[in-house]
Amino acid sequence: MAIYSFNGVDLKMMLRGAVKLLGQSKEEIDALNVFPVPDGDTGTNMYQTLVSAVKEAESVDSNHIGLVAGAAARGGLIGARGNSGVILSQIMQGFANSLSGVERATAPDIVSALEEGAKVAYRTVMSPVEGTILTVVRKSAEGAAARQSGDLLRLMVTVLKKALDALQETPNLLPVLKRSGVVDAGGRGFVVILEGFLRALKSASPAAKTSCAAPLVFEEEPPSKNQPVFQENAGAINFTYCTELLVKGANLPLEEMRAALSPFGDSLMVVGGESVAKVHIHSNNPGLILECCLKHGTLHDLKINNMAEQNQELLAETERSASGKPFGIISVGAGEGITEIMKNLGADAVVSGGQTLNPSTGGILAAIDEVPARRVIILPNNKNIILTAEQAGRLSQKEVTVIPSKSIPQGLAALLTLNPEDNFAAAARKMTKALGSVRSGEITTAVRDTEYKNLHIKKGDIIGLADGDLSSAGTELTAVLEDLLQELIEGEGRLVTIYFGDKITVADAEEITEKMRQKYAGQDFEMQNGGQPVYDLLISVE
Amino acid sequence: MNKVYIATDSTADLPLELINEYGITVVPLKVIFSGCEPLLDGVEIDTVEFYRRLVENREMPATSQPTPAEFAAAYGKLSAKGGKIISIHLSSKLSGTCQSARMAKEMVSGVDIEVIDSKLASMGLGLVVLEAAAAARAGKSKEEILDVINKLIPKIQVFFIVDSLDYLVRGGRIGKAQAFLGTILNIKPLLYLKEGIVNPHEKVRGKTRAIDRLVEIVEETAGNKKIKCSLVHGNDPAGVEQLRQKLAAKLNCDEPVVTGLGAVIGTHVGPGVLGIVFAVCDSKQ
User: Fold this and answer.
1) How far is CA A464 from each of CA A22, A416, A486, rounded to the nearest angstrom?
2) B4-29+65-153: CATH, from 3.40.50.300, 3.40.50.720, 3.40.50.10170, 2.70.50.60
3) Which residues on A lie below 8 Å from B205 (Cβ)?
4) Chain B CB within 8 Å of residue A513 CB
5) ipTM of this complex
6) Which of B199, B201, B208 has the CB atom closest to A524's CB atom?
């Protein structure tokens, strides 16, 4: 069997194959962690991102591959979670850019699309690291370019083979992978997606290709243990603005407009003819709707109604604060105590998320929309959420600055600098500067055996991380904390704050803090109820 | 004779020895604990007694500015000795004291009185008064003394920490404080005087670090230039001693004037206050 072109239906089928296989493999990918800490779940994040892409692609009723790829890219953009999810969404973006306007893609088209995907992905990351998903994507694209076959099935086999080779190489490029004896998790995710494509192609009979495919059942994401402040799946977003308008132009591409507008809300209608189209949609981004329509013609009879207006009081209050607030702040965090402290320090919204619960681009975007200010500062407070926050910032109509905070203590130190006298730029500058003023410690339980530096760690051991790097391990919390503090504390007169998690009792926390107070007599100690999951203790030293 | 007398009000928080040494006339404001007679600040109630009662009563006393008649009486006494008067006062944005003094000036005819709004408070005002009094004692003319005062005022900086912003907020003496209201994480709000009003500067966690930060701020501004300086405290001799030692180790400064806050300033900032007032001296001095 040879295939000489892909259309939109083929792409949807391949995407379904990929999402199915990634769903089956996500736990295996999650386990490819460098550190034995409960991690940001690369596999789960990529899966969630792909699910969002596929849902969007499925909503396009066309066999035009450019339109389907475009929809998938938009879905990916909104649903992106974690660093690997954001990079995956950017690969899809590049893919879609390259295929834009293409109805049936031939082998050279697919090669170009892969190359563009790799290029866009590299651009997303400020300092690209080799030995990650980036390398795997780039090598796949290079392999494809060298294959020179008109048969797409053979081409895809080559791409997968090159991707696998590149994946095996990742430990040689990134020493940290070699030490942990794993390949790169994001790279593995990409390989699984390619495998899914290929399986779908191979199993597709000509009949299956033409008949309507069985509806996909997506695995729903597990409900969060903590009450999320903002719901993250698109279905739960309340679309506030009913936006209606007429677009006048020549040869209006109704289908294309429909596809472009659908990610922004529900109850979408694009009806009319070649010269006038009526657009109706419920959305949270009426501005984006208008921008989108403006590309196709002139706008008339504009109507934007706020459907949530029945709650007049709340609205009035929101507007009042919107007018009085030069900028808003969104902080990512988990745990009742941590959330409370963040709000008390001036965060307008706390997006639930953290180590094992990375919020999606769409989730952060919803929070940006809800903050009653036109300028927004985001504190991701986790290295795996920074890219997602940046992506949300790019998608938002508001002016957004992401402060690259990698830990809760860094986020709190940044919030502490807030001064009502400062403007947006000054506040962002001070917050960024504050990141370096604090050292962060984390204590959690190992999820698997590992050797790291001189530490022999067994699953279930208590491990301590200093600024994200594994630094102490043992079976007894106090001893691990003592070693960790040894690493974190420099000099005298530091303020050490211990935020205890949801599995530690107040009495235990007090006892531990008192022991540390005695052991490190030259330092000031403070204890706070963080209530965070995953980490028994979070420590800041400043 | 062209002798110039220097007058001020009790919110300058000047120590009694210096008031006597320089012959400064101090018109007291009043503090009123609920259900009690008004007490003259610094005359009928001192720092220690005030804070004892503040903690004991667990309620905020009221304060009131001197009446124009009280100022007029003080000016009258000075004019009887012959000479001119320079009357320097608490920031007009924090109190109507300056307004009372100006009205008194209208009431006392035939006397040369200059009323000055220092836009400062506590020893910020105190340092200006001391410089003016020194110049007066040296026999400088009214114009020369006014020149000293006008040049010194913009140079004076006042930074201080408080235990809680409650007192400043309740007294309506702080502008944009909302974001500073958090009392979690052992935050010490660090404030400063800017254009006559109290403004939030930053939040510091823990008293020791807050003291270090005060010293650091002075260092950042002054470098190794010589400074004039004064330390104030709300009945916290141990805290102010810590501040003095840290400052002495790092800065080029003569022995600072250390003083307790009077009852009126104390009412508006509450307990736990530690502050530093300083001015960078001209290089030629």
Assistant:
1) 31, 25, 11
2) 3.40.50.10170
3) 416, 495, 497, 526, 542
4) no
5) 0.76
6) B208
